Amino acid sequence: MAAETTPEDAADGGGPDDDPSNRGGQETDDSTRDGALHPAFERYEGEVVPSVGVGAPGKTGELDLSFAIADGTTRLVRDYARVPFHVSGTLGHDPHPTGETVYVQSPSGGIAQGDRHDVAVRVREGAVAHVSTSSSTKVLSMDQNYGGVDIDLHVEAGGHLEYVPEPLILHADARYCQRLAVELAPGASAIVGDVVVPGRLARGERFAFDRFAASLRALRGDRLLVADDAHLCPAERDPSAPGVLDEYDVYGTLYVLAPDLDGDAGRPTLSAFADALHAAAVEAPGGESDDDATDTVAAGATALPNDAGVLVRALGDRADGVTRSLRAAWSTARTELIGAEAPPRRKN
Known about the structure:
GO molecular function, one term: nickel cation binding
Strand content: 35-45%
Keywords: Chaperone, Cytoplasm, Nickel insertion
Oligomer: single chain
Function: Required for maturation of urease via the functional incorporation of the urease nickel metallocenter.
Radius of gyration: 19 Å
Main location: cytoplasm
Largest sheet: 10 strands, mixed
Family: Belongs to the UreD family.
């Protein structure tokens, strides 16, 4: 498994302990592919959840989506959702001529203790899909166990997937563990984003959550291309300390996974691509270059190991600023990869 990292040194694209080049490229067994449960969460696994236990109806959500080319455009050909997930159809507003968008909804108040959710998204050959959530995901206060989400993304040859949910909000005493794996066939690409908010900031709740862990594994076949882990536990290490989040509250990450980009005729090198994404992130409203901004965002970008793509990280005081910064980088990356900007938001 990859070494544990924090979202430190975002403005420089990661510090020496955060260097993904130290962790990619090796053959993997199933435990590495799936991302084993973070060791800090093993002790919570057996804690009894009062009233409604792990595995009870509503506690184990399932979402299974598949996209494929049909009649010359991308169609949602499979959508299975088990509470708390709900899918009400697709939105035909993507700037890409064959692109399709799905917003995943949830009627629940958020992720509660003992929840275990599984998400699977498959994009078949040549299809273009964008999956997001209709609103922010709240991780509720807990006194037993934890909430966990496993996400598996598969993109077949020539396909393109964007998995960019709305921000994750960690309430006081929340425990959350997320494991995400994305498998890319030759010629496939993916953009994966997340924004983490350390509490209900408007009411002064800041870094009052118990524990947060998230891992990403990007693979091609049995070859591990990228491994990235984040682990925050305010009781063990102050997230506002230098080298972690410092003066900022919110952090976000955008993984632009395009293993076939570097060296393609007419395409930029990964170094130039990273520079372009960094420029987009800092020039967005509220970014580093915005002298009038009240919500300054610091951002950095770096090429991933094994020519896998580019990582963009952003730190800010509010979720809106970090989201805008990453969205600008996302739109720039999307234009380079598939020739169309990011689709407009249809959630407000």
